[in-house]
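User: Before I run my own analysis I want an independent prediction to cross-check against. Here's the chain; please return only the structure tokens and, at the end, one sentence I can use as a sanity check.
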Amino acid sequence: MARDNPAASRQMRARIAQLAARLMAEDGMDDFGAAKRKAARQIGASETRNLPDNAEVEAALRLHQSLYQADEQPVRLARLRGAATGLMRRLARFDPHLTGSVLSGTAGRYAQVELHLYTDNAKDVELFLLNGGLEYRTREARFWAGGEPRSVPVFELEADDTPVVLYVFESRDLRRPVRATAEGRPIERSRLDAIPAGGAAG
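Assistant: Structure tokens:
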């Protein structure tokens, strides 16, 4: 049986990370896992071996944006953060936290503002949107909060010509780590007063 070649494995991980970063930056993919799997398929690599972790892809994404989107990306990020902060002020009663690529500073061309809201009655969020005349679509998303699987209500809408996704968690989840998968790292989230200024990377 042939042994693994560590150098070849590192090279493959780097290639997949670079291609996944390009897919996220140029094609609007916003899911690290999906971008890695698509990148692996495109270069004929196994989907289960030599895949980079999310941190490697994020580093490659930041490099790609600094090389190929140095003019447009900071402007886009500043606009998205401005829209996010305005909406967070309106949603203050739900203790909104910014998350996703707008917080991390890697927002691509098709990025959405992603907010985590906290309330013990998701209907209050729906009433807020209705009273504000905001049209929305609903779905559910699965997370792990404090180690427990959880399906949370999701509201998708546009505010100030910006696509927005609101994830509605229980109040107790604010004090618990929230993960996208059971084994994943806690999702980074930030209150309004801790969001990096303008187009500065997080």
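Sanity check: The chain is about 40% helix and 20% strand.
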